[in-house]
Amino acid sequence: MVGYMDMTDPTQQCPDSWQKITSPRSSCGKKSSATCDSLNITTSGASYQTVCGRFRGYQIGSTDAFDNYKNIPLNIETYYVDGVTVTYGMAGNRHHVYTYAAGWSELNSSQSSCPCTGGGTPPPPLVGSDYYCESANPGPGYDYRKFYYSDVLWDRHQCGGNENMCCNPPDLPWFCKTFPTPISEDLEVRICTDEGLDTENVGIESFELYIHVQVTAKDIETIAYTTLRENISDNANSMASIDTSIIGLTIAIAFVVFFSLGVLVATCIGCVVVKKRSTVTLPHQPALLEPLVYEMIESDQKKITTIKVETNSAYGTAKDMYN
Question: Which residues pair with 85 in a beta bridge?
């Protein structure tokens, strides 16, 4: 995990570049009018090729989704959206990762609503299909400064009226984006609107960001040894209570060894779990690879932990099934 914030925790404070909104729901919003307020997410120079994450937020006032960009120069440096944008690279050389847009109304299919309503302005080419959009305003009009706290944005719920399609993306609220070549630049989260704070804002309640990095099979073996040593006692009976994440990790190591020790494998810093928001966590994980390598898929009857290991010459999947 490279970025995390959860304003449902009353002890948490907003970054200096954002303002804390305490009522009616705690969140972090913009400080400035008609611009983007930025938060840098350091990746510590790590080489990565995939970014994953999720956001939860609130609509405040008359947000206009992608209707902004028609009136400003079309580039990623501007406030092309009312919402949240994730990029990598420095100012002046930003590259798009993902956008979370806040539309005007669930019922109104005007150009200021989400594209998924059937009438909203489509995203600019720089965004493409790498975005989610939702409105929390249940009516056809708007109310400047109103905090629509009863409907959390981008959570795959309460897509009423004309925006029922807005909750259809299968991985919502999670996104994962893979780039053609590895990069090592920092990430950036910006809250953007094209009007003043007296008419609109977007509040972020929580977010998580993860990157996939390249590590060697030896790194995984070392971490596995440390984790097992700390969590498994000498008592053989204790094996029955081993965390399933440890079992999954053992399978992953065996799979790597099967193909060849020493080859590079693709692994995730952070437990990237996008199906039904399930998670697996390694207890006492070293900082080098805080939680490891999983995608957990849940069904109604059973849980299936899928560990995917990719090498230069082979790709495989190991499954640990349990009740």
Answer: 99, 190
